[in-house]
Design a protein that fits this description.
Elements: H1 11-19, E1 26-29, E2 32-35, H2 41-61, E3 65-69, E4 74-77, E5 80-82, E6 86-90, E7 106-110, H3 116-120, H4 122-127, E8 135-140, E9 145-150, E10 161-163, E11 167-170, E12 175-178, H5 179-182
């Protein structure tokens, strides 16, 4: 089946269009629909692992947040919406029929050959347009490292920290992740 992609649309038009599609995954960048590539097992597995690591950290800390894996849309602005590989947002949960997760505090992308440029450029800029985003984690499975971007006091984005070991303290929401736990052996 061929999917005819609309030429330009707003996020609201995109969400209404996307939910009507029989199959496929999409994002919206600058008003243009971007079809997501099929994912390899390693990418899928790592998305699931980071979700579990985030969820467990939230439970340990007892903070009023939730984690979710991909499928949730983050509205960047009126013409851009991304679907991160995982995210953390404050409770309450969105309604069961929601397509978007408002006010994410942490967004996560797992690098792959087909997404690396967008994850480290377009999505970096886009996610930090969302006022609630405090942390953007880019997981590099090949290097087994976390590239951590964070919002500084006053709103500026700090230079990235690259971690291969130790602990990552993310505040807000007040959780801690062991870097080694993010990259367990498959």
């Amino acid at each position: 089946m061929n999917v005819v992609l609309p030429t330009r649309m707003t996020v609201d038009e995109f969400l209404a269009w996307a939910i009507r599609q029989d199959k496929g995954r999409y994002e919206l960048f600058d008003g243009r629909v971007v079809m997501q590539q099929p994912e390899r097992w390693g990418h899928l597995w790592r998305k699931g692992e980071i979700f579990v690591v985030l969820r467990n950290a939230i439970e340990r800390a007892g903070v009023p947040y939730f984690a979710t894996t991909d499928g949730a849309t983050v509205r960047v602005d009126g013409s851009t919406a991304f679907e991160p590989d995982a995210l953390v947002a404050p409770l309450p949960y969105p309604s069961e029929d929601a397509l978007e997760v408002p006010n994410p505090v942490i967004v996560v992308e797992v690098l792959s050959p087909s997404t690396a440029r967008r994850d480290l450029a377009d999505k970096l800029v886009g996610y930090f347009k969302v006022p609630s985003v405090q942390h953007y984690l880019v997981l590099d499975p090949e290097e087994r490292e976390v590239i951590w971007y964070r919002r500084a006091a006053g709103g500026a984005i700090e230079p990235p920290a690259t971690l291969r070991e130790g602990a990552l303290r993310l505040d807000p929401p007040g959780i801690e992740l062991a870097v080694a736990g993010i990259f367990p052996a498959p």
